[in-house]
Every structure is written in C-alpha cells, then in structure tokens.
Amino acid sequence: MATTRKPKRVAASQPGFLTLKSNINPTDLYSSKRKRMNKNKKKNWNKHCDINDVEEFLDDIRLQERTTGGLIADKPDDSLFFLDIGQPRKSEEKELEEGKKKKAKGSRPLRIDLILKHDSLVLPPKDILSFQQPNAKKLRRSAHLAAKAAVPRRQRLSRRLEPTTTKKAEANNNPHRDYYDIWGQAIEETADPWFLQQTKKTQIKRPEKLNTKPSELPAVEVIAAGGSYNPDFYAHQLLLKEAHEIEVLKQKEEQKVERQLAYNRADAATEETIFQEQVQGLVEDEDLNSDGDEEEEGAVGAIAVAQKKTERQRKRERFEKVKEQRRLAQKVAMEKRQQLFQLRTIKTSIKNQDDKTKVKQVKRKEKQEAQKALPRRLGRLKFQPQDLEVQLSDELAGSLRRLKPEGSVLKDRFKSLQKRNLIEPRERAKFKRRHKVKYVEKRAFREIS
C-alpha cells in the first residue's frame, strides 16, 4: 500500500499565526496534488510554480502592519481585548456623552486633514542621509586626539595663521555702505589659505633665496675716470698701471707653464743609453747572478738561525707587558690628578681658544661677503675676465669726433652676465666637419699634367 504524502505547509498554515482577512482559510493553503515538472530549468520557474499562497501571506502581513502597527500574534492581550463590566449607569452615560460632545466640538479635525493624514501605522523608513555628517571620520579622529591631548598637524598649522575676521557682505543699494576705491589696495582673501592655493587664487610662497640676487655687482659697471676720451693725466696713468699689472701676471703664467714643460738637456738620451735600452734583457749579467745566489744563501741562514722561544722567555714577556700597562695607567691617573692644580691654566687656554674661534668666524664672514662680488664656478670652464680697454698716451683723441671705438657692446653684456653668475662661462662652439673632404682632379688639369 502506497504511503500517503503529507501536504506541504506554508508559513500561514503554521500554528500561532492569526489571519486578519476573513475570506482566507488556512486549510486552503494546503497543496492537494503535486505537480510534476522539471524545476532545474529556468523557464519552468514562473510557469509551473504557484506562489499565490506566499503573496497572500505577505499581503496579510502588510495589512496587519498598516492597521495595527505590527503582527497581531505579537501584540499583547490588553491591546486586543477589553474587560466587559456591564452597561454603565445613566448618570455616567450622560457624563460620557457630554464629555464626548465637548471633545468632539473642540477637537474635531477637518475633512481635508483627514484625507491628508497618514493612515498607516508602519513607521517611515529611516533616511540615512539625514543621519550623515560631513567629515564625520575626521571629526571622530579629532575628538579622539583631543581626548588624548593631541592636536592634528593641520590644526597646528592653522593655529599659526593669524585669525581673519569675516565681514558680512552688504547690499549694493545700501546708501550707508562704505566707499569702495577701485584703485586702492586689494581686499585680503578671508578663505582658507590652503584652499586659495589649490584653486590658484593665491600664489605659492616665494622662497627667500629667490629674492636675493646671485651677485652684488651692478648690471652696468662704470669704467674708471682714466678711460674717458679726454681723461686727467694722473687718472690715465693709474689705468695704464692697472693694465700693465694684468699683462705682467699673464706673462708670469706663460713663463710658469714653459718652465714646467721644459726639460734638462743633460738628461737627454745619447747613443749609448739608447743601445743599452735596446739590448737590455738579451745579455746575461754574471754579477747579477752572483748577487742573487748570495741573497738566497743569506735568507736560508736567517731561517736556520731562528729558534723557538722557551716557556720562561714567554712568561717574562707577558710580565713585562703587564708591567708596562700598569705604568701607563698610573701615569694617566697622575696626570688627571695634576689637572686639578691647573684649572687656571685650563680656563685661560679655553678662553684663548674661544677668542681664536671668534676671530676665525669674523674672517670667514668677511670672506663670504667678499665672495659675493666674485664670479662663482657654475660650469666646466672658469670665468675669464674681459681685457681692459685702455688707450695709450699717444692714442688719446681729445675729442669725440676723433675717438676710435674699441670693444663690443654685445661681448661686454655677455661677460657681465657671466660675472654676475646669471649664466655659466661658455666658449664658442667649434665647427666639426661630419664628412671628409674629397679631392677630385678635373679632367682638363689631368690632361695637362
């Protein structure tokens, strides 16, 4: 005999569930006959699966939530039932009726309010955006740091800035507003400095080093009084002397290079020395061989003479070593004790050393100040000063009409830029031929030759 299959139970048919709709019978939710279909295919899910019982169950739950504010099964008995104590007396009925009439007259809502009133007891969903705060994570972190008595880095930086007071904007039609001068000073920005910097409304703070000039020399140097077209005699002679000293220094440098490159003629190679270099290693020298044998014999004899030290000698050496170490330690301790009686001398030496250090600092500063007016080494080449433009006594013109121009303005400006450390010293680029020159002899010349 085949076993009877138990009907499938849905959530509404379980014990303890109360239905609010009267037309729904829990017994109707039982499935009497099983439908045969293939449920592992998607096309049969909506075609053969009956979900009416689930939808009715969910509709009933929604209805209970709207009308009663929750499931009836979860409600307490006091909210669902009341105690019947019989009919009230006439006097009590009159008081209740009068109270209801007064209350109804005083607090009767309008029809429009009843229509617009929300009739569902279901609580509205929580709006997440209303609970969110801007920069909540940063605020929590700052509160956590404040509890630890620690201040964030950005807050420390903002404290250094001067507090700015924001001024409320006034309407343009206000007759009592302040007079605004369009040619006056610019109004200071009151926004966050970091925000203004990121939005390119304010420039980045310029380093102080960029405000200092690379050299203290003027852009245009005025030549000495002796360089005029009609100079004073003594001023012209001083300029000639300066030019003479420059030429003497150049001549000394050339002579120094010549001396370094010169060689002694006595050390020059002769025919005999050249011959000895050529035959060196080809002729056997008997004297050298004999000297080598003597050295080998001496080395062997030295090795044979060396003997092993005895235990007594080793103990003696250790004793002498320990004795010497003790003597040095006693000497150091004695020197430290003697230094107590040399405090005046030590203080005097320290004072003299401090005075020498101060003098060196002053000299170093003076040297640094003097180097500000000198050209620095900016590149591969050293700065070569321009030749001094001076005329001899017999070349002086005496007037501007007969004055001969000297030098070049362009070269003078180029050297001035190098001297003021604005550009590095450069040399003229040399022309390098990419291809070799090919000489071709013409036919007419070849016939003649």
TrEMBL record:
One of its GO terms (biological process) is ribosomal large subunit assembly. It comes from Knipowitschia caucasica. The lineage of its organism: Eukaryota, Metazoa, Chordata, Craniata, Vertebrata. GO terms for cellular component: nucleolus; nucleoplasm. Transmembrane segments: none annotated. It comes from the Eukaryota. Belongs to the NOP53 family. This is Ribosome biogenesis protein NOP53. May play a role in ribosome biogenesis. GO terms for molecular function: 5S rRNA binding. InterPro entries: Nop53/GLTSCR2. Keywords: Nucleus, Ribosome biogenesis. It is found in: Nucleus, Nucleolus; Nucleus, Nucleoplasm.
